[in-house]
């Protein structure tokens, strides 16, 4: 049975990249005895235009007028069946998930999950606010092993020594591994983790006059009498896209009140 397609590799804008999926024999001894020759790996071209509409580096401020609550679900796919070579003892475990919610002006280390093999699973600067001023409904991302670049070693639990100069964090690509002793030698490693983000609630934001002040009151609409109306307004300068799409219904932009003047002379 085929695994799920991998995440997009080497895809930039509309330049094609590659996706990979793999499968393994349920009974390897029987398959070898029968001289099975079926392909255990498939590749296909892909471009970024098919990626769900979430972006990792937003180029626009969020214009949503409401707030959203999301549920993050992390599923570890690392198992003896998916990674049989050099399978680690039972003490294998994931470290705690580290993450943060922040605006586009804040910069911090990437969100990642660490596995005790010098490998990472991470999501970097994921924007859940869409250009049309709504929130992403659902997002799923498959994670493949990433080399942390801090140690030199061949196998998970084999001897290691520190890198003299730390290398950039980079995906582990089996075609770049020539040592058959490596735990990742052979077919491209399947996903070892999956992250699902699901929107579970959207709620209006309560604005107040201190954070969004109104302009001063206008002149009364009449020059005398008790049937006058005066108005005051405010404008959303940074959320103009939301205003154009009528998505700021909970934020009143105009207020009116009666005004009373001296009785009109007959």
TrEMBL record:
Keywords: Cell adhesion, Extracellular matrix, Secreted. It holds the Pfam family TSP_1. GO terms for cellular component: extracellular matrix. Transmembrane segments: none annotated. It is found in: Secreted, Extracellular space, Extracellular matrix. The keyword Lipoprotein does not apply. The keyword Secreted applies. It comes from the Eukaryota. InterPro entries: Spondin/Thrombospondin_T1, Spondin_N, Spondin_N_sf, TSP1_rpt, TSP1_rpt_sf. This is Spondin domain-containing protein. It comes from Rotaria sordida.
